[in-house]
Amino acid sequence: MPVYQAPVADTLFVLNDLLRIARYDNLPGFSDASADVVEAILGEGGKFASEVFHPLNQIGDREGCKRAEDGSVATPQGFKAAYDQFREAGWGGLSADPAYGGQGLPHVLAASVNEFMSSANMAFAMYPGLTRGAIAAIQQHGSPEQKEAYLPRMIEGSWTGTMNLTEPHCGTDLGLLRTRATPQADGSYRISGQKIFISAGEHDLSDNIIHLVLARIDGAPEGTKGISLFIVPKFLPDDAGEAGGRNGVSCGAIEEKMGIHGNATCVMNYDEATGYLIGEAHKGLRAMFTMMNEARLGVGIQGLAISEIAYQNAVTYAKDRLQGRALSGPKARDKAADPLIVHPDIRRMLMTMRAVNEAGRALVLYTALKGDLSHLAEDEAARQAADDWMGLLTPVIKGVLTDKGFENAVMAQQVYGGHGYIAEWGMEQFVRDARIAQIYEGANGIQALDLVGRKLGLNGGRAIQAFFAEVGKFAEENRSDEALAPYTKGIKKGLNDLQQATMWLMQNAMAKPDHAGAASNDYMHLFGLVALGYMWGLSVKAAQEKLAAGDGDEAFLKAKLVTGKFFMERLMPETAAHLARISSGADSMMALDAEAF
Amino acid sequence: MPVYQAPVADTLFVLNDLLRIARYDNLPGFSDASADVVEAILGEGGKFASEVFHPLNQIGDREGCKRAEDGSVATPQGFKAAYDQFREAGWGGLSADPAYGGQGLPHVLAASVNEFMSSANMAFAMYPGLTRGAIAAIQQHGSPEQKEAYLPRMIEGSWTGTMNLTEPHCGTDLGLLRTRATPQADGSYRISGQKIFISAGEHDLSDNIIHLVLARIDGAPEGTKGISLFIVPKFLPDDAGEAGGRNGVSCGAIEEKMGIHGNATCVMNYDEATGYLIGEAHKGLRAMFTMMNEARLGVGIQGLAISEIAYQNAVTYAKDRLQGRALSGPKARDKAADPLIVHPDIRRMLMTMRAVNEAGRALVLYTALKGDLSHLAEDEAARQAADDWMGLLTPVIKGVLTDKGFENAVMAQQVYGGHGYIAEWGMEQFVRDARIAQIYEGANGIQALDLVGRKLGLNGGRAIQAFFAEVGKFAEENRSDEALAPYTKGIKKGLNDLQQATMWLMQNAMAKPDHAGAASNDYMHLFGLVALGYMWGLSVKAAQEKLAAGDGDEAFLKAKLVTGKFFMERLMPETAAHLARISSGADSMMALDAEAF
Question: CA–CA separation, B555 vs A88, rounded Å?
């Protein structure tokens, strides 16, 4: 069975030494997040993930969710009891609004705990994960009455949430959606239609399920400008606010999937279900994007999370399994063979995963902190800058960390040789689970288009210019520091490639939009490498300062310097290949007629 | 359900126009392979693959193989009847020795048919695939009596074969193996021990199963120098040569795997089973390598095969599925949305798969032809040169085409969005099936080490020098041809990077072998890109000549020019990144103590 231990020390390094969150202790939430409290929460969260979520991970995969004839869905054995523990411990409300029963801690802290839970059991962590997205949408777009009616129970965890976007004929292209909403005299709507791929659509973990559903009000404009968002509870709240009468929504089937079997992915049928408009009519996409952005960051975290647990198990196996002798001469002379970890190609895989995971964690938390600051920072300019970073980096984190997460799960599986292909070792489950993260909440190609087609040009390129300035400044300020030079050199080279690619897009994509589409995937990954490289720069600088001060775990800090160097040598060279591909344009890609395929 | 149509036209282009196999019509086997015969065999083979193998692919995945309490194994519904058809049609003996009932056709032709069968149903195609490996070992190392006893029935297909190498504690490191062989008075041996991961180890398709088993004769030297190869039939041949008494070998369990569920992957228990030494005592590894090389090329073909069928289905979906509008303006104005294929990022994925598949097919067949010539060519120098190419390219084909095959299956799945993750569409099965090809017959890290640590230096580097000379000559001879220049430029650049990487290894790996290990994976992929790029050079040149002569399907030939250009623009740039990684050496990779992980 796979092992898992939450990377608490590395998370504390990022929060305390790289982000120095103590700086913000004058802000709401942060004032409650003293170093002691943060350490205690991460320790407890990690323990909960290892001890409660993780033991159910393989069971969940094997058993899957089962739909009964009446449309009810049973989660795998043990899920309900574990969810009760999760709810009772209050993990769901960590960063939620205290006005509705949340603990009001910073999102950056909740993001860490989310990583741990997703590593331990991704399919399970999705139940509260989707609830968080629904909470965010109601918090931001709901009326005071709606907030009062739904938020306390969702934050407390006795009610869960879902997102309903996809229909059989439309996923990415929501303009095509057909689910309709008919206004009723009492101000509510009757919702009818079919939604597919609804994660946590129906299950037995909570007393009620609050569906957020995109639908078209009768007579609304066609396309995306006629879509509204509705709250459709499984049980309509009664006068006391408790789950009351059954609403006309039901699970028609559970999808048979490649992975995340512990999560019920449902076909949801809406048959004149009662729904309540949330936010403005016809502006549902805007409200949905609140959930989507929250969810996209969460999916990026899933990529990191699977990569982390896959890495931990690959390390364990590489230390345990004896096979062959080191190229440099036997290492474990007392044994029949050396452990796998002596072999360079095994090291290549372990170091690659490690270099991505540690920088990925830094990037996620750096960005989650910006999320906090976008609301809390004291001056408007700081709030705007933080919001710009969030908007720019969200597609990068979603697209790049899930692509890397999958690649790393595959790499970790490879370390196991034949045993990696066998179900009982658990490595192939990580591969199957990780795969979905590249697809849902906007397939990664859509993330790349969001970055290139939308985020780059927003507000005259303000966000990307700020990013260039920040990374460039770091490289410039530290390049004469001999100890940092090997790192700043790599960052600078990557940044140059990214700037050149951006310039190429500016000069070419306006005249021929296909050039932007043809470049988008490479551009996103080039961007990701520069962002991760920058995180390595910040990490190494923080580690060097602590080493110079004789403060902290020396082996841990020195490993940062080595791993950062590995990143610059082994991952950063890819930026030039991305630039070359981007600059080749769309011509050969688009030249063939569809019939030629 | 997925579709499949064998790429007969492309295969004919490779055989007739690129390889020009008609040149060899004076050689045995080739003399029977006239253009008509080749076309008929490919047509029939493709039809058989589509109509008989393919309809069982999803069934096999869903049902898997089942072991009964008595150790017998049932294959999925329909497999037995399909195997009977396969056997009766004589597909198993296509290139086998006519002296034992084979048709004696060139291996290059059998390799094509093997691709089709593996695309249609990889798990099924493995049953005859492993038999071919066993046939090769017996043919090359068996005594005349052994050949007589086993080959006719194996070639005919009524008996099948297996390879038994792996034990629970040893896979790559065969020196550790413990299965023992005790000599008997009659010259036979008693074989005892346990083997795992034995593909097609037990099943109901054939009347007998001939296991080729590595074991250590009592008192043999330790390590790999004390390993011998044995024939261990499930049923001992009786006096009439028919399957007689049951031997002491049985299936202890079927592994629960990520994919290839249609193939029975068995734990095999040998309990004083009767075995017959094949080849010399203690030289079993050499004999086993005959099977391994055959098998490694076959596994490379599996990578190509899955990539091809995944590509075909991605194309179908991309043409059918309507979603979004082209960046360059609506294309299907009469419909609610444009088909996916208008989107550059979808094209990027389709073109990448296509560019790899077509060059991969050319490389496989180019190499399979060398396999034929290594036996059949009239002068010794030509045989040796062909054998050198085979040895050098086998690890490249195995490692690179299976890595690319998996990546392409993942890419094809991505084209489907959420539907790609759902079992019924069949795309996720391709991903799960393709994954094993990177692991078995020597994990790809072992292929890379074989290339860098063994094949490069063999005979003073004769094979690699010949490869450099051949590719360099092509680039040089054609660089002044304006129509070919865009291609030769890419090939030349890639070749330069490969030569530099080779030089770096020569200068650094001797003093520090870890540098070779650290470089090996990148070197193998760099090599693969140059080899595939060279195939594109040859393909484009052949296509241009045919176009100039007004001979052949113009759209098909022009598509070659476009796809080759895409390869140079989008895949070849990776060679520089590989070189940069290789030149960074092993230091940061190996710097951390095992305890730091």
Answer: 66
CB atoms within 10 A of CB A242: 12
Answer yes or no: B441 catalytic: yes
Residues of chain A in contact with residue B196, where contact means CB-CB under 8 angstroms, are: 418
pLDDT, tens digit, 9 for 90 and up, residues B563-596: 999 999 999 999 999 999 999 999 999 999 999 9
Residues A336-375 pLDDT 10s: 999 999 999 999 999 999 999 999 999 999 999 999 999 9
CB contact under 8 A, B445 and A586: no
Interhelix angle B513-548/B380-415, nearest 10 degrees: 90
- pLDDT tens sequence across A52-89: 999 999 999 999 999 999 999 999 999 999 999 999 99
Q: Do A347 and B590 touch (CB under 8 A)?
A: yes
- Residues B441, B476, B545, B595: which is the catalytic one? B441
Verify whether the Cβ–Cβ distance A173 to B324 is below 8 Å: yes
Contact yes or no for A461/A469 (Cβ under 8 A): no
**Beta bridge partners of residue B194, listed in sequence order:** B269
B596 neighbourhood in chain A, CB within 8 Å: 555, 559
A246 within 8 A of A234, measured Cβ to Cβ: yes
Give the nearest partner residue to B435 out of A421, A594, A595, using CB atoms.
A421
CA distance A469 to A389: 12
Which residue in the block uniquely carries the two structure tokens 């995937």?
A521
Of B438, B379, B453, the C-alpha closest to B407 is B438
Please, what is the Cα angle at A87 between A81 and A89, to 5 degrees?
105
Asked if B337's CB is within 8 angstroms of A176's CB, the reply is yes
| Mutate: best of A348, A536, A584, partner B, most B CBs <10 A | A348
Q: Which long-range contacts (CB under 8 A, 24 or more apart) does B373-382 make?
A: B373/B24, B376/B24, B376/B27, B376/B28, B376/B29, B376/B30, B377/B27, B378/B27
pLDDT tens per residue, range B520-571: 999 999 999 999 999 999 999 999 999 999 999 999 999 999 999 999 999 9
CA distance B293 to B170: 20
Q: What is the pLDDT of residue A291?
A: 76
Could you list the active site residues of A? 441
Q: State both tokens at B412.
A: 């094809």
User: Confidence band (pLDDT; 50, 70, 90) for B291?
Assistant: confident
Determine, for residues A449 and B345 on separate chains, whether the beta-carbon distance falls below 8 Å.
Answer: yes
pLDDT at B288: 83
Q: Which residues of A touch B256 (CB under 8 A)?
A: 422-424
Dist CA A294 CA A4 (whole Å): 26
For B92-146, the pLDDT digits (tens) are 999 999 999 999 999 999 999 999 999 999 999 999 999 999 999 999 999 999 9
Residue B290 in this model has a pLDDT that exceeds 80: no
Question: Per-residue pLDDT tens for A195-213?
Answer: 999 999 999 999 999 999 9
* Interval B20-72: pLDDT, tens: 999 999 999 999 999 999 999 999 999 999 999 999 999 999 999 999 999 99
pLDDT at B233: 98
Q: Locate the chain A residue with the closest alpha carbon to B432.
A: A432
What proportions of chain B, in percent to the nearest 5, are helix, strand and coil?
65, 15, 25
Closest-CA residue of chain A to B427: A258
In whole angstroms, what is the distance from residue B117 CA to residue B216 CA? 36
Could you give phi then psi for residue A208, rounded to 5 degrees? -155, 155
CB pairs under 8 A between A and B: 253
* A256, A406, A559 member nearest B424 (Cβ): A256
* Residue B236 CB burial class (10 angstroms; 0-12, 13-18, ≥19): middle
CB contact under 8 A, A513 and B327: yes
